[in-house]
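Worked problem 6 (solution included).
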Amino acid sequence: MKNISRLVPLALVCALAGCSEPGPRTDPPSSPQPSARAGFGGKEPPVVTKVKQATFRTPSKNIFCDLSASLVRCDIASKTWTPPTKPADCELDWGNGLYLKSGEAGVTCTGDTLIGATTRTLDYGSALRAGDIQCESQSSGLTCMSDKTGHGFTLASARYAVF
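Solution. The predicted structure is:
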């Protein structure tokens, strides 16, 4: 009886402390590894559709583009930014959009518009590629770039960039 009275408190302590009989060790099941972008704000790669030619608009219906393997031109209906000074050799409408042709990007000088030219929408998170030119639609704006030269542009109602 004396030995049992010593074992009862020991069993109670082990039960409360989570003691168990020694046995084979089992690790918890592994969980999937998080994405390398997790917690760093990286965006998912776009869903890319290859085309020979496409006319499209952004979901906001504010930017309309014409894309081919050698050229992309995008016109913007409403913007808060101001284009650079109109060059003397531009006798048409200036600064209503951007273009990428032969690997060089710039501000448009045109006598027509693409606004309203299509109902095909390039959804946010999607991209169209013709040749080495890819245009990607994001809620923050549209970016078109030549993989060959690295030049392109980003176009949005509040800003634009030519690179």
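Discussion: The chain has one domain: 47-162.
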